[in-house]
Amino acid sequence: MAKYRRSRINDAVKEEMAQILRDVKDPRITGALVSITAAEVSADLKFAKIFFSVLGEDKNEVLKGLKSASGFFRSELAKRINLRITPELHFEYDSSVEYGANISSILKALDIKPDEEEENE
């Protein structure tokens, strides 16, 4: 499969999963701010890794909620995206948002004073 096609499928799966996430009734998912950050579909379209980030709740509880609703996610995905095979969904926590916030707080704490040359410009 061409790389650009797989990239388009990944983007489509990510967008649709974000939309489907709004329809889930599980309190473990609706009680937290959950966002889908990426999707990686395998070359044979049988498996998909869905990466998510969480703010305000325990990531393990949200992961349990996502796994329990994976059947709902898969059936809705089959209705919304026209693929020959609907991939089996595997959810993984994406810590890049936390990592970025940590780096930002470290940079703010450094309190670096500007050089005199930069002030004159």
The global form is globular
Largest sheet: 3 strands, mixed
One letter per element, helices H and strands E, the order comes to HHEEHHEHH
- The value of Rg in angstroms is 19 Å
Pick out the low-confidence regions: none
Number of domains in the coordinates? 1
- Please give the CATH class: Alpha Beta
**Spatial sequence of strands, sheet with the most strands:** 1-2-3
Oligomerization state of this entry?
single chain
Mean pLDDT: 88
Number of strands: 3
Q: Would you identify the CATH architecture?
A: 2-Layer Sandwich
Distance between the termini: 53 Å
Helix content: 40-55%
Q: Write the CATH fold name.
A: GMP Synthetase, Chain A, domain 3
Compact overview of the structure:
The protein is an alpha+beta fold. 53% of the residues lie in helices and 20% in strands. It is globular.
Structure characteristics:
121 residues; alpha+beta; GMP Synthetase, Chain A, domain 3; 20% strand
Give a written overview of the molecule.
Strands 1-2-3 form a three-stranded mixed β-sheet. The radius of gyration is 19 Å and the shape is globular. About 15% of the residues are buried. The protein is built from six helices and three strands. Helix 1 (about 5-20) crosses helix 4. The protein has helices at about 5-20, 25-30, 60-70, 70-80, 95-110, 115-120, and strands at about 35-40, 45-55, 90-95. With about 120 residues, the protein is α+β, with helices and mostly antiparallel strands.
Topology:
Layout: H1 3-21, H2 27-30, E1 33-41, E2 47-55, H3 59-68, H4 70-80, E3 88-93, H5 96-110, H6 116-120
Helix pairs in contact: 1-4
